[in-house]
Amino acid sequence: MERKIIFFDIDGTLLDHDKKLPASTKKAVRLLKEQGHEVAIATGRAPFMFKDLREELDIQTYISFNGQYIVLNGEVLYKNPLNKEELQDLTAFAVEHDHPVVYMDHEDMKSNIEFHDYIESSISTLKIGFTHPHHDPTYFKGREIYQSLLFCTAGEEAPYEEKFKKFDFIRWHEFSTDVLPKGGSKARGIETMIEKLGFDKKDVYAFGDGLNDIEMLEFVGNGVAMGNAEEVVKEVANLVTKDVAEDGILHGLELVGLLK
Q1: Where in the sequence numbering do the catalytic residues fall?
Q2: What is the pLDDT of residues 114-131, one digit of tens each?
Q3: Which of the two ends of the chain, N or C, has the fewest CB atoms closer than 10 A to its terminal CB?
Q4: Using 50, 70 and 90 to split pLDDT, how confident is the model at 172?
């Protein structure tokens, strides 16, 4: 079979609803690699949040921060940090409105305040080994920050969207919104990577379940939505597989003919 490249989202795609890696998924990834295919991760997470998963699956190629930090075979291919002046202004605006901010680079994440319930409530759902980042309000200074988290309830991000035009705001939790460079996405990350590797779109596959996967599934030649995906995600996919907890990855790879 001609060599293909397959991108996998993490939460609700590679990992099940309990943030566990199904045995069938681990087997499927191994079989893909044995057949000579390129396997990559495409996630909104920071690299330090899925280091163990990369090691378990032996995947050294990934798109993180929804396309802002791309690594190919262990080497950084592309970086797109947040504008520093705009981030400083956003922080000041957030402080005025009592909205906490977390700064994330490829190595760590820090909070501009010591503790807040909104931070703990949302970060705890990621199950990354801690529930609240350490306090360092100057972390964004002198570093490249690829994503921030703004902690507020639905609708409270509207003034930020109006004021900070260099950023995109994508809600992922009832108390938290991702802050990303304007126009950045998994789809753009995939475009950058396949241009480097020389893949045609027809040989590019992607699996996802969330709203931040829509552009990715539309862009690739073969977009597969998980059975547990939201309806709007399923609508843009070429195929819909089973729930992640029902061997959805293995079944999906069989559906598209990559595994038998």
Answers
A1: 9
A2: 999 999 999 999 889 999
A3: C
A4: confident
At residue 6, what are phi and psi to the nearest 5 degrees? Answer: -125, 125
Q: Any residues with CB less than 8 A from the CB of 238 and at least 6 apart, and which?
A: 217, 222, 223, 224
- Could you tell me the CA-to-CA distances from 174 to 102, 147, 212 in Å, in that order? 16, 18, 16
CB atoms within 10 A of CB 164: 21
Q: Is the pTM of this model over 0.70?
A: yes
Instruction: Take residue 77 and report the two structure tokens written for it.
Output: 């291919």
Residue type, 63: I
Q: Report how far apart, in Å, the C-alpha atoms of 196 and of each of 46, 93, 189, 193 are.
A: 22, 39, 11, 5
Q: Which domains does the chain have, with CATH numbers?
A: 5-79+184-255 (3.40.50.1000), 84-181 (3.30.1240.10)
- Give me the mean pLDDT over the 55-83 stretch: 97
| Token pair 């009592």 in the structure block, residue | 98
Rounded Cα–Cα distance for residues 116 and 42 (Å): 29
Taking each helix axis as running N to C, give the angle between helix 248-255 and helix 23-34, from 0 to 180 degrees, rounded to the nearest 10: 40
Residue with tokens 């000041």: 92
User: Rounded to 5 degrees, what are φ and ψ at 2?
Assistant: -60, 145
Distance CA 23, CA 226 (A): 17
Q: How many residues does the chain have?
A: 260
Instruction: Fill in the DSSP letter of residue 155.
Output: T
